[in-house]
Design a protein that fits this description.
This protein is of the alpha+beta class. The chain contains 16 helices and five strands. Helices cover 45% and strands 11% of the residues. This is J domain-containing protein.
């Protein structure tokens, strides 16, 4: 059995008169309007069904009665707008305010957005007025300074929030002709693209490990035979002079004239020849030999390492006259053949005419010296038919063109009849390298332990080496490869070109 007040509310909705609407049961009507399925509103829902009204009809008449009861009176919003008196309990006032906001919120009335917004604004102003009138007369001043201002701000914020929500709902309703799932998909796709753009971070390029660069030019080995042959007689002469100075007695004051000293010094020494030094020619007699030794004692230039005993003061004048005459007899010095330990006034020995010094051939480049070159097996008559010393330079040019990705410079090293692994034509090799250069951002190649030798017939040059290749693929990954590579060069005019490459 339904309560009596529910039947009274149902009859008021059926008749559409506010005089029969009990204001004490207004909260129950508001609860039914906000949520008809609420268990506390089940009795009222049953009574409405009993009078023959549907929920839609009953809700429309309930809004009409509430408009007549709460919003059609003149004057500013007050407690009457909430359906209360001025001295109502604040807790009941807050409960009535929350239920009125739930019923008149613009989100529940998308078809009557402006109407619901105006009702919500009046409810907020009425609640603010009720909050300002609560409390005793002594506490109203503090309420206006503390409670009224926050409540007013809260009311304004709630009003703005309700207006913004109503505007958004209205904009969403305008998109009804366009499929909303498509709009949502476009929005999600845009957010995804923005996130990917912000999170994109290009990885730094990986630098390949630096490898030793082979020498591109043939370096001539320094000729050590000529300086050694020139320094050897000088060292022997210094030793002989030191031995003679050790065995000589202290030189007395010179009694001979200056021309006699020059005559003794003008004799060519026997140590200047490139061959083994021979003993000096025997003098005509012992008396002349003793006189020559005594006269020539102060003449030679003293060695810095082995110095003779000091001469008496009277011998300083002849020594000063003899020393400037020595450079006149000496040939012009050769800078590159002067030994570092040679005395300042020593005469550089001239090579013996009977034994000419043969020129030293240049040594192979530094890269080829890592492994001994194989002696060619060709006959002696064909060994000079081709010169393979330019192979390291050609491989250096190959390496530079490969590292730089210069297709034209690289293919200029290939013969028109070149073959490389499974590529039988020059154009096939060119297309392969063009595709390889476009697929790799950075590449490096190095050759080590190079072996170069002519072929058996002496018409071509064969080379074998270990290679190391490092490159960056299209995704930026570093890859290293190594192995053995074989080259075959053929002469084309004045240079060698690649005829066969296999690895």
């Amino acid at each position: 059995m339904t309560p009596h007040w529910t039947q009274q509310l149902a009859r008021a909705l059926h008749d559409g008169r506010t005089t029969t609407l009990p204001e004490s049961r207004l909260d129950a009507l508001l609860l039914w309007l906000s949520n008809p399925e609420n268990p506390h509103a089940a009795d009222l829902d049953a009574a409405i069904s009993h009078v023959g009204l549907t929920r839609l009809q009953a809700s429309e008449r309930a809004y009409e009665l509430l408009d007549q009861l709460l919003f059609e009176h003149a004057g500013p919003p007050s407690a009457r707008t909430l359906g209360l008196t001025a001295n109502t309990d604040p807790a009941l006032t807050k409960q009535r305010y929350r239920r009125l906001i739930q019923v008149y919120h613009p989100d529940r009335h998308s078809d009557h957005n402006d109407w619901a917004t105006r009702r919500t604004e009046r409810i907020n102003l009425a609640f603010s007025a009720c909050q300002g009138q609560t409390g005793t007369a002594s506490g109203r001043a503090s309420a206006s300074a503390s409670d009224a201002r926050p409540s007013g701000y809260r009311a304004v914020l709630e009003t703005l929030w309700s207006m913004a929500a109503s505007r958004l709902r209205h904009a969403w309703d305008l998109t009804a002709p366009f499929p909303r799932w498509r709009l949502a998909g476009l929005g999600a796709l845009g957010l995804l693209l923005i996130g990917l753009f912000l999170s994109f971070d290009e990885p730094p390029p990986v630098r390949p490990v630096a490898m030793p660069v082979p020498s591109n030019s043939i370096q001539a080995a320094p000729s050590n035979q000529r300086p050694n042959s020139a320094a050897r007689p000088t060292e022997r002469r210094e030793i002989d002079e030191a031995a003679v100075s050790d065995t000589k007695p202290p030189a007395p004051a010179p009694t001979e004239s200056v021309p006699a000293i020059r005559t003794a010094e003008s004799r060519p020494p026997a140590e200047v020849h490139d061959t083994e030094p021979s003993a000096p020619a025997p003098p005509p007699d012992d008396q002349e030999r003793s006189r020559d030794i005594a006269a020539s004692a102060p003449a030679p230039a003293p060695d810095p390492a082995v110095s003779p005993p000091p001469a008496p003061p009277a011998s300083s004048a002849p020594q000063t006259a003899v020393i400037p005459a020595l450079p006149d007899r000496s040939p012009p010095p050769v800078p590159e053949q002067t030994a570092p330990r040679e005395p300042r006034l020593a005469i550089p020995p001239a090579p013996s005419p009977s034994q000419p010094i043969s020129p030293t051939p240049p040594s192979p480049p530094a890269l080829a010296q890592r492994m001994p070159l194989t002696t060619p097996s060709a006959p002696g008559g064909l060994s000079a038919a081709i010169d393979c010393r330019s192979v390291p330079e050609l491989l250096g040019r190959f390496q530079q063109a490969y590292d730089a990705g210069d297709l034209e410079r690289l293919m200029a090293l290939y013969s028109p009849a070149a073959r490389e692994n499974n590529f039988d034509t020059w154009f096939g090799i060119r297309q392969t390298y063009a595709a390889w250069f476009s697929q790799t951002a950075v590449r490096r190649i190095r050759f080590e332990q190079l072996r170069v030798q002519p072929t058996a017939n002496g018409e071509r040059c064969a080379a074998t080496a270990f290679f190391q290749v490092a490159y960056l693929d299209a995704q930026g990954g570093l890859t290293n490869q190594n192995g053995v590579i074989e080259f075959l060069f053929e002469p084309r005019g004045a240079e060698l070109l690649l005829l066969r490459v296999r690895y």
